[in-house]
Design goal:
11 strands; 7-stranded mixed sheet; mainly beta; 4-stranded antiparallel sheet
């Protein structure tokens, strides 16, 4: 059984910062790419940031220069540092990871989501 558990969401004023964490646990053999998505009310889920197992990153245009994705492979954890937050960043943020479990094929796993609310 593999789980992704997110933490770090909350309420922050515009211009502020938050750091999200997502820890993978369970019968993990290896983790490939990891990513953060977000879904605002009435909108489709969108990719925010992506990081490969080798550390290569890419970002949605709307967050470039403000958000930084990183990972600690020893801890099976991915982070999202969010700076200069704007009200339009308000959404539920989801962690995603491509995980090869010990007794299973590689597949995508999702966290339960963490709410980020940015007030103006």
């Amino acid at each position: 059984q593999v789980q992704l558990v997110e933490s770090g969401g909350g309420l922050v004023q515009a211009g502020g910062s938050l750091r999200l964490s997502c820890a993978a646990s369970g019968s993990i053999f290896s983790i490939n790419a990891m990513a953060w998505y977000r879904q605002a009310p009435g909108k489709q889920r969108e990719l925010v940031a992506h990081i490969t197992s080798g550390g290569s990153t890419n970002y949605a245009d709307s967050v470039k220069g403000r958000f930084t994705i990183s990972r600690d492979n020893a801890k099976n954890t991915v982070y999202l540092q969010m700076n200069s937050l704007k009200p339009e960043d308000t959404a539920v943020y989801y962690c995603n990871a491509a995980i090869l479990a010990i007794i299973a094929d590689e597949k995508d796993y999702w966290g339960q989501g963490t709410q980020v609310t940015v007030s103006s």
